[in-house]
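Tutorial handout. Part one gives the primary structure; part two gives the three-dimensional structure as C-alpha cells.
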Amino acid sequence: MRILKIMLVFLVLCVASTFSISCGSGSDAIAVTEDRVETVQRGDLTVDITAVGNLALSLTEDLTFEISGTVEGVSVEEGVNRRDEYQRNQGGRGETPDD
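Part two.
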C-alpha cells in the first residue's frame, strides 16, 4: 500500500511538472522567422516505404446492372477525357455524364 501511495505522488508530480513546463508563460517569447530563397532542380522524387499490414481501398462503389452477365474487360486509356469518350459512344449527341 505504501508503494502505491509513493507511485501515485510521483505520478502527480510528473504530470504537474510536465504541465507547468509545456504551458509556460510564453509571453516573453519572440517569434523569429527567416526568409530563404533556394534553387531547385527538376527530378524524380523517390520515397521508399517499408511496412507490414493489410491494404484496404478507401473508395469503393457498388455496381448494379439491369441485365445479368459477366464483364469481360474494361477499356481505359491514360489521358482520355471521360466526357469526350461518352459523347463518342453516344454518337455525339452532346449529352454528358453526371459528375
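Part three, for discussion. The radius of gyration is 31 Å. Helices lie at 2-22, 82-89.
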